[in-house]
């Protein structure tokens, strides 16, 4: 199934134009024609023609910018539509579909009625299509692209060679250079190529040409790989009678959670965000959104988190439908069940989720270590749900529990002073450990660290204070930057 004007047909379906029409796409700093309709081709225009040249040939040309990604999504939609004819449907390039109708043609009255139904439905949808049917995938592609311009082409069972005999060698899906070389050798058609000796062809063009020929003739199999739709993590429950009690809604939600979590477990995934839609009998809907601290798929853990939101729902004259969808899904591989201590992280995740439903998950933050030897840059504040706590991190040297901006003290010398004043307290040094020299990061933007190196000391005072002090040799001075517990 080939759509020779897929992009332009899709654009004209949205807004019809009774005039020469083309889609443009910028390639290599030049605006070129990407696709065009029959009226534009009748004016002598063709694909990849520069847009300025096309306007000179056809001043009445109407254009729109092309959307290749949108065309691929539209083709994926056509693939899903084609599943009504057979279960094996795959993509053929960027403008075609390939179907394996083995065992399905009799459901529509035979091969020809099947193709007639396809063609009629696509014409009503405004899509020009070319159909080809044969024993092999390569032959069907050749008949769709190089067969008769009108109608579909069907190769009789066992008649693939006769159907392809007069078609050009380009129908074998080979590159243009090989096509030109075969025509110069006097082999313009597939029939002439079949009757030629294979050994000289293999020596000159390689095995790729013979592989394409064997695939078209059916001598070498070519599998059809159907696309699989991504898993849809959503469940729905339609009620025979409206409900309005919180307990009834929670009971229905429990059934939905069990079905949804079973889907998530089958895909080894977990939900990070859930959306519960409650449809009332007056056709109005209320949407309850729940964000989770971590990926979850345990109904017993998720269900209580909805209780507070469900209590505030206005049921009106009753709710007749519940729909639960996982709007954000993350991988959650299966894990070996451990001892009871493994349940502690789950309790923390439940706590974060409960607090997050009240104040927002983005408002809950935790400290995360950074790869920097500068004390002020060795950590950062991040949302608690974006990164797991780092339990195995440790500093190469002891660091104070309380870190604050450097506070100057009155002292002299390169070793910790015996007596000094800090925060209006007179302190006496009992023991000092150090120094630990920390050099600035030349690539950083902190002006306080541009002044030079620092020599850090752990100072234990006789008054019980355990301070983290440093001395700056370039500009002699002593500062306190932290305190140990």
Describe what you observe in this structure.
The protein has helices spanning 6-14, 38-42, 51-57, 68-82, 111-124, 137-146, 160-164, 176-184, 190-195, 198-205, 207-217, 246-266, 299-311, 344-359, and strands spanning 21-27, 30-36, 62-65, 88-91, 97-100, 132-133, 153-154, 234-243, 269-280, 285-296, 319-331, 365-369, 379-383, 402-409, 419-422, 425-438, 454-461, 466-471, 478-483. Helix 10 (198-205) crosses helix 11 (207-217). The strands form six sheets. It has a six-stranded antiparallel β-sheet, with no helix packed on it. Strands 8-11-9-10 form a four-stranded antiparallel β-sheet. A three-stranded mixed β-sheet has the order 2-1-3. The chain is of the alpha+beta class. It is elongated.
Percent range for β-strand residues: 25-35%
Strands across the major sheet, in which order?
14-19-18-17-16-15
CATH class of the largest domain: Alpha Beta
For the residues shown, what is the average pLDDT? Answer: 87
| Strand elements, count | 19
Which structural category fits the helices and strands?
alpha+beta
Assigned CATH architecture of the largest domain:
2-Layer Sandwich
């Amino acid at each position: 199934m080939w759509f020779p004007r897929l992009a332009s047909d899709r654009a004209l379906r949205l807004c019809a134009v009774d005039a020469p029409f083309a889609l443009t796409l910028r390639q290599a700093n030049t605006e070129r024609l990407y696709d065009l309709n029959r009226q534009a081709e009748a004016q002598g225009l063709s694909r990849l023609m520069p847009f300025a040249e096309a306007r000179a040939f056809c001043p009445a040309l109407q254009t729109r910018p092309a959307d290749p990604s949108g065309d691929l999504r539209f083709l994926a939609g056509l693939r899903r539509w084609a599943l009504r004819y057979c279960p094996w449907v795959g993509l053929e390039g960027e403008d075609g579909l390939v179907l394996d109708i083995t065992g399905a043609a009799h459901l529509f009255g035979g091969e020809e009625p099947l193709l007639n139904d396809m063609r009629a439905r696509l014409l009503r949808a405004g899509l020009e299509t070319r159909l080809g049917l044969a024993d092999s995938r390569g032959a069907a592609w050749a008949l769709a692209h190089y067969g008769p311009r009108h109608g579909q082409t069907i190769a009789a069972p066992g008649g693939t060679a006769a159907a392809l005999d007069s078609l050009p060698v380009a129908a074998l899906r080979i590159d243009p250079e090989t096509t030109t070389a075969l025509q110069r050798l006097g082999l313009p058609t597939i029939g002439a190529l079949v009757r030629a000796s294979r050994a000289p062809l293999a020596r000159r063009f390689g095995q790729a040409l013979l592989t394409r020929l064997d695939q078209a003739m059916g001598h070498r199999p070519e599998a059809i790989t159907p696309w699989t739709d991504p898993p849809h993590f959503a469940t729905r429950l339609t009620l025979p009678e409206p409900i309005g009690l919180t307990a009834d809604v929670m009971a229905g939600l429990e059934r939905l959670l069990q079905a949804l979590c079973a889907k998530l477990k089958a895909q080894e995934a977990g939900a990070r965000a859930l959306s519960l839609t409650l449809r009332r009998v007056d056709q109005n809907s209320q949407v309850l959104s729940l964000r989770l601290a971590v990926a979850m798929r345990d109904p017993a853990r998720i269900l209580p988190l909805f209780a507070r939101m469900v209590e505030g729902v206005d049921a009106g004259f009753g709710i007749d439908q519940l729909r639960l969808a996982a709007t954000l899904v993350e991988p959650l591989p299966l894990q070996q069940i451990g001892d009871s201590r493994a349940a502690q992280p789950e309790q923390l995740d439940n706590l974060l989720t409960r607090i997050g439903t009240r104040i927002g998950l983005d408002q809950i933050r935790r400290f995360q270590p950074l790869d920097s030897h500068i004390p002020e840059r060795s950590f950062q504040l991040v949302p608690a749900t974006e990164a797991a706590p780092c339990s195995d991190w440790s500093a190469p040297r002891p660091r104070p529990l309380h870190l604050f901006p450097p506070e100057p003290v009155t002292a002299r010398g390169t070793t910790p002073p015996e007596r000094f004043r800090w925060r209006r307290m007179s302190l006496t040094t009992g023991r000092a450990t150090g120094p630990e020299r920390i050099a600035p990061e030349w690539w950083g933007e902190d002006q306080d660290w541009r002044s030079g190196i620092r020599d850090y000391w752990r100072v234990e005072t006789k008054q019980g204070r355990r301070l983290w002090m440093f001395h700056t040799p370039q500009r002699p001075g002593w500062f306190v930057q932290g305190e140990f517990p």
